[in-house]
Write a structure and sequence with these properties.
heterodimer, A: mainly alpha, two-stranded antiparallel ribbon, 27 helices, elongated, B: mainly alpha, globular
């Protein structure tokens, strides 16, 4: 029964937020003016809530299925030209329903929270229209059953992040941050597009050559995931540009993922994305957008698994990003910036997981991260509101006494991100670290990078918590706890940050790793036999130890002996400067790419104006000169000739006029003369 | 009556604007409002008739023979001694262009409402222009095609030269001479074709084109004639000047329809009459497309004048058409013609948008604006939509055409297409940068009194905006029209003849 609902009406999950966005986008200004913020908030939250209810139905119907675990809701044909057949159709399988639940669940809480957070903003309606559109785009991204339809969601989240980061557009800084996010993402999108093109053209070649393609359910839509899953093995032997085609495709697609999911080298937009309202950051970092790249690789795991080179690149990029971002997180003073770098770092973990083929571990971490990161950001938002938009943690302190609920939930989430057992982050992070060590694509160095990152994470989270919630109140403000509309989402998210990990307790700890088994059908079942290894316990203890060590160091520097925290940056001035300025990567990118492109554009434009157009104008000039010469010739020769003839006629006339004397005698004389001449002529000839 | 309309629908579409124009001459010149309304009413007739065509067009038919691929055909003998015929008809290639033209013209009349100098002359010329444009897309007799081609040129020259900006004479002459050079080259080829094959009938020319000599020369003469119109690098410099000087509505027509005649001409003439040369020159055309995409986008990025920026963006977007055409795949060709249609709509929006702000601020310097979103929220919303359509946002119409073009071209030219695809980044950069400089940031005091779009402006932009969204989600209404005709043309090329 439930399966039929989803099969026929699954699209409603996507439609509700779209309707909400349309209603608020088109009528919101009028509603806000006439009826206030209430109806806008209700429309926005209700649309996500309905979507959430449907997501639960979809989840239950996928769970209740015996085999196959795939439901497809086909709406209509979108493009059908040549080999390119693309439907607007939605794919419900374990992977997409998990994503859907996270997006709508966490998204709904963020919507609720935003109603209070954005109270009194003149752009209230606009905000919620964008927010609904964001959820819509993300749902399209995860539910699309083919790559081109997925690309609508893929660019859609880019658009929404652009609109929301630059939401307070009157400050040019925010607008620039929005631009940066979109353009950096576009760079990645180019890779994604090229990946799609390559995949398509190679498979279309196979199709036109009558290759042995198996059409799943008679579906010949090349870019649909079912078709790809059945047929990518045909690309195995093909080489292009001297590399295996599959590797090139995977690297192109991964370039797209580095844009969306803020990995090296395209991570630079995410820290700036803090310019948007804080709940937006929560949405971008937890439920939507940055998880897109991870999801895409998981969705195409069958393709990525074919290229160990590509997987290696992904794993190394992930590990490097995790380390780099964690190092930057240690010195930032803006509460949101610290969290931003922590997101980049945690995403690095997820890519590390993807790179070592531990897809379900990556998705598991994606889920737990969604809970604790949303909780952290919303908690930060609560703090920022209480401090009248102060974001500098060096001017906070002692908030735990005034904001107990925010404090408790924040700490729970901080424990979770640090990976302290039994908080959710511990289970997911540990599974990744173990895979990085033990999987066939893994390497001890990859594990070590993740291990170091874990220590740094707990260090900077402790630092953040210490400076914000402990010690003296340095803000000089009277601080109140936020209202229930804010703390309720925090409590729910903290609850999941604490307990979500139990859905994936590894076999080594006596669990049954339910989460990963649920996803098994999507990724092809992975052997779990390696799991009773003493090494696993050793590594687990090591990572717990380094987490505690990091936290201890953080406490020592920022809780116990704050003066040390002031001395250390002085002592390592250059290192601190390097870290604080983010290795000057932004400046380098600005100088090389942004200014470079602009200069090149100016050059081309000048070329256009002074070379191409000059040729045209010279051509015109030459023609004019030619025309002048001809004109002169015309005036002085042709015209002169005409004039001469005219003159001759005139003078001849005036000469002849003299004959016209009016005297009869003269005429008779002339006549006689002429007659005589005539007679002579006859006589002679 | 309905039968009469059904049988002569193309003739009606072509000549009703002309009759309207002639009738306008009888109206006293100072009755401005009446002239505007009457012109608007006249342009609505082809629009209604084009809806009739849309409903009755046989989408499955293909071929280049009357009654099969060619529909709504009318053929009468005209000058028998030279076997010139009045021969009109449309196939899947031209039908979308006729519809685009019928849609854009009333929009342009709306955008011309504030012309108050020489009103009668302006609208007379405008209606004459519509006749010329419709004629070019419908003519199936090469000589008739040429006549309409010239008919369209003249009003354009006067519209720019009289109602244009400060450097209007320079721009008008430049436009005129450029296009005239093309016309002469085309005329020579037409005459040569006639002397060899003794016919101007395009269907016969297509059927017997293989017996022509000097094929390469003819191909290039025609190609350059059309390339000037597209315009392809390096024949493009008339375009920015013409756009900057032309009044808003003329820019709209110029970009939305006249540019399409270049690519239409290549597809209609070069592709079908000289298919073997076309196939040989495929890579050259793809390279031309690539250069246009990148070069146009970079030039657009460097502009300070909003109108010039939009003009260069047209060059960039027409590059996609060229690239798709050169691929000879179903995806690429359909993408190319769909891109012609989409670009017509989007660029029309962009030029209308430029007109709106120019009417208020009396300048177009991008850098001197800022924060206009606060003063003009509706205008900002439409502009954002138009620019995002221009940068190919998925879900909007140009995304589909650009992806079709790229996916089609990629099958043939991996490197050229990959380089062309970098255009999406440059395009995004200049579009967003423009939006940022005009709409975002703090609102300048002197612009705080600017009024939002009025009803007339909204009315001219709204239908286009709706099409941008609808065709992005559901492109079949337009794609269906062209598919079989383009399949046929592609067949001619790949088989090297009909």
């Amino acid at each position: 029964m439930m399966k039929e609902i989803i099969q026929n009406y699954g699209y409603l999950i996507v439609i509700f937020p779209l309707l909400g966005a349309l209603a608020n986008g088109l009528l919101g200004r009028m509603m806000q003016k006439r009826y206030g913020e209430m109806p806008i908030g209700i429309i926005a939250c209700a649309s996500i809530f309905f979507s959430f209810i449907f997501s639960i139905i979809a989840f239950l119907s996928v769970v209740s299925m015996q085999n196959n675990l795939v439901i497809i809701n086909n709406l209509f044909n979108w493009i059908s030209i040549g080999y390119l057949k693309t439907d607007i159709s939605f794919l419900f399988d374990p992977l997409s329903v998990v994503m859907m639940l996270i997006i709508t669940g966490v998204g709904f809480l963020i919507h609720l929270y935003s109603v209070f957070y954005m109270k009194g903003d003149p752009g209230f309606y606009r905000y919620f229209a964008y927010l609904n559109l964001f959820i819509f785009s993300m749902l399209v991204l995860v539910l699309a059953d083919n790559m081109l339809f997925m690309f609508i969601g893929w660019e859609g989240v880019g658009l929404c992040s652009y609109l929301l980061i630059g939401f307070w557009y009157e400050d040019m800084k925010n607008a620039v941050a929005g631009n940066k996010a979109f353009i950096v993402n576009r760079v990645g999108d180019l890779g994604f597009l090229l990946g799609i093109f390559l995949l398509f053209s190679l498979l279309a070649e196979q199709l036109s050559a009558g290759g042995a393609l198996s059409l799943a359910n008679g579906n010949s839509s090349i870019l649909s995931f079912s078709f790809l899953a059945e047929n990518v093995h045909l690309l195995g032997g093909i080489n292009i540009f001297g590399m295996s085609a599959v590797t090139v495709i995977c690297l192109c697609l991964f370039a797209g993922a580095t844009g969306k999911s803020a990995q090296i080298p395209l991570y630079v937009w995410l820290p700036d994305a803090m310019a948007g309202p804080t709940p937006v950051s929560a949405l971008i970092h937890a439920a939507t957008m940055v998880t897109a790249g991870v999801y895409m690789i998981a969705r195409l795991s069958f393709l990525f698994s074919m290229s160990s080179t590509a997987l290696g690149v992904i794993a190394v990029t992930g590990a490097a990003t995790a380390l780099l971002a964690a190092s930057l997180g240690c010195v930032q003073n803006d509460i949101k910036k610290v969290l931003a770098y922590s997101t980049i770092s945690q995403l690095g973990y997820m890519f590390l997981a993807m790179g070592v083929g531990a897809y379900s571990a990556g998705i598991f971490h994606l889920m737990t991260h969604a809970f604790f990161k949303a909780c952290l950001f919303l908690g930060a938002g609560s703090v920022i509101l209480a401090l009248h938009h102060e974001q500098d943690i060096t001017r906070m302190g002692g908030l735990r006494r005034f904001m107990p609920m925010t404090f408790i939930t924040f700490i729970i989430a901080a424990f979770a991100i640090s990976g302290l057992p039994p908080f959710s982050g511990f289970f997911s992070k540990d599974e990744i670290l173990w895979s990085a060590w033990s999987s066939s694509n893994g390497h001890p160095l990859l594990w070590f990078a993740g291990f170091l990152t874990a220590g740094m994470t707990s260090f900077y989270m402790t630092r953040l918590a210490m400076l914000t919630f402990f010690g003296e109140n340095r803000s000089g403000l009277i601080i109140k706890e936020s209202p229930f509309l804010v703390t309720a989402p925090l409590m729910i998210l903290a609850f999941f940050s604490l307990f979500a990990g139990f859905t994936g307790v590894p076999e080594a700890l006596g669990g049954n790793n339910m989460f990963s088994h649920f996803l098994d059908p999507v990724f092809g079942i992975q052997g779990g036999a390696a799991h009773h290894d003493t090494m696993e316990y050793v590594l687990m203890s090591a990572s717990v130890l380094i987490v505690i060590a990091g936290a201890g160091l953080g406490y020592l520097l920022y809780g116990h002996r704050p003066q040390l925290a002031r001395i250390l940056p002085e002592k390592f001035r250059h290192l601190h400067k390097l870290l604080y300025n983010k290795y000057f990567i932004d400046e380098i990118y600005d100088a090389v790419f942004v200014s470079g492109t602009k200069m090149f554009a100016s050059f081309i434009s000048a070329f256009d104006k002074y070379v191409i157009d000059l040729i045209v104008n010279i051509f015109g000039f030459v023609l004019r000169i030619e025309a002048m010469i001809i004109g002169w010739f015309d005036l002085h020769f042709i015209d002169k000739a005409v004039d001469l003839i005219a003159e001759f006629t005139l003078s001849a006339g005036s000469g002849a006029r003299k004959i016209q004397t009016g005297r009869i005698q003269a005429y008779v004389m002339l006549m006689l003369f002429a007659v005589t001449l005539g007679i002579l002529y006859r006589l002679i000839f | 009556m309905p039968e009469f309309i059904g049988e002569h629908i193309l003739t009606l579409i072509i000549f009703i604007p002309l009759f309207g124009a002639l009738a306008l001459l009888a109206v006293p010149g100072e009755r401005h409002e009446f002239i505007r309304r009457a012109s608007f009413a006249v342009t609505l007739v082809p629009l209604v008739l084009s809806v009739f065509i849309f409903m009755n067009f046989d989408r499955g038919a293909s071929g280049f023979v009357s009654g099969e691929g060619l529909q709504f055909v009318e053929k009468y003998s005209w000058i028998e001694q030279f076997s010139m015929n009045y021969f009109v008809g449309i196939d899947g290639l031209s039908v979308s262009m006729v519809m685009l033209c019928a849609l854009i013209c009333p929009v342009c009349i709306l955008a011309s409402w504030n012309i108050d100098k020489g009103v009668k002359g302006y609208f007379f010329l405008f209606l004459l222009l519509e006749t010329g444009m419709m004629g070019v897309f419908c003519a199936l007799d090469f000589f008739l095609f040429f006549i309409f081609w010239e008919v369209m040129l003249l009003p354009m020259y006067f519209l720019i030269g009289i109602w244009g900006g400060p450097r209007k004479e320079y721009a008008a002459i430049k436009f005129f001479l450029y296009t005239l050079v093309g016309s002469v080259m085309m005329l020579l080829v037409i005459i040569y074709f006639y002397l060899t094959l003794h016919t101007f009938d395009m269907t016969e020319l297509v059927a017997s084109g293989s017996s022509l000599n000097y094929r390469m020369l003819c191909w290039w003469a025609l190609f350059i004639a059309f390339a000037i119109k597209i315009p392809l690098f390096p024949f493009h410099t008339w375009l920015p000047d013409a756009h900057v000087e032309a009044p808003t509505a003329v820019s709209v027509v110029l970009a939305a329809i006249l540019l399409k005649m270049g690519t239409y001409g290549i597809l209609r003439i070069n592709y079908t009459m000289l298919p073997d040369i076309t196939l040989q020159m495929a890579t050259a055309m793809a390279v031309f497309g690539m250069i246009n995409i990148i070069y146009g986008a970079l030039c657009a990025m460097a502009q300070r004048d909003l109108k010039k920026l939009v003009a260069y963006s047209s060059i960039s977007h027409m590059g996609y058409v060229m690239l798709g055409m050169a691929s000879f795949t179903a995806e690429g060709l359909n993408g190319a013609v769909f891109q012609m249609f989409n670009h017509g709509i989007i660029t029309a929006m962009l030029f209308l948008i430029v007109g709106v702000i120019y009417d208020r601020a009396h300048h177009r310097e991008i850098d001197s604006f800022g924060g206009l979103a606060s003063a003009m929220p509706n205008y900002a919303a439409v502009t954002f939509l138009a620019f995002f359509a221009a940068l190919g946002l998925p879900g909007l119409n140009s995304f589909i055409s650009e992806v079709l073009v790229l996916i089609g071209a990629f099958q043939k030219y991996r490197l050229i297409t990959a380089v062309s695809a970098t255009g999406v980044i440059i395009t995004a950069a200049y579009c967003l940068w423009t939006l940022q400089r005009i709409f975002l940031g703090k609102l300048d005091e002197k612009y705080s009194m600017l009024s939002d779009m009025n009803t007339r402006e909204t009315l001219s932009l709204l239908p286009l905006a709706l099409l941008v969204v609808i065709l992005g989600v559901y492109p079949h209404p337009v794609l269906n029209l062209m598919q079989s005709a383009l399949g046929f043309i592609n067949g001619i090329i790949l088989k090297g003849g009909i």
